[in-house]
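--- STAGE predict ---
source: upstream dedup step, 1 unique chain passed
mode: sequence only
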Amino acid sequence: MDLTGKTIVITGAASGIGKATALACAAAGANVVLNDVDADRLAAAVRETEALQPGAAALGVAADIRDGDQVARLFDAAVERFGRIDGVFANAGITGARMPVAELDFDSWSAVMDVNLHGTFRTVIEGARRLLAQGGGGSIVISGSSQGVRPLPGFIAYAASKGALHNLAQSLAFELAEHRIRVNVLVPGTTNTELVRAMPGHGERVAKTFPLGELAEPEELAQFVVFAMSDLAPHMTGTLLKIDSGRLI
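--- STAGE serialize ---
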């Protein structure tokens, strides 16, 4: 897959699926704009992306997607450095604490929604406006979750936020189609990220509940984002890319 000449903006890029996607996009020839709220880990991810191959062009922009002004500055920085954007991977998100309904309060609900739903809304709307203004189409991918389709107990806010993002993506896909801006959703199950590996035995227990019996790796999921950003997917929009080891069968 070839992303040569394309500029891709990725939020939540300091670790996990976001970082793996930044590396995969750079390996495919893209200019990559990495964003995260954690400036130190972001800087390390940028260095790793630049070291991937000679000539890899990477820009790190620390910003909090809960703040609309910071989101605007993220895209300003991308355009100032590379001249335009071609794709957005709205990946930043949080799970929130596992909490039964009897203990769920509005502050806990809002903390998840402010990042996952409102922050992603700010990101994709700002990205869509930039793509519309410059013309020529583009691609937006949103990080969803299998919990947005089939929730698990204790994650009410997280599941609700991801379900809302699935519908946001399909609404945007319909409205932006005439402008050749495609919008799709990556829908992973539990993925073998640093967070999962930090919980001894958790990944193995979850994997046993999946039909394929194993967790996807972030690097595997990243390839589907690269595909969605590439010219190989001109007719794919409004799609939920369920890469979940069969969880949603």
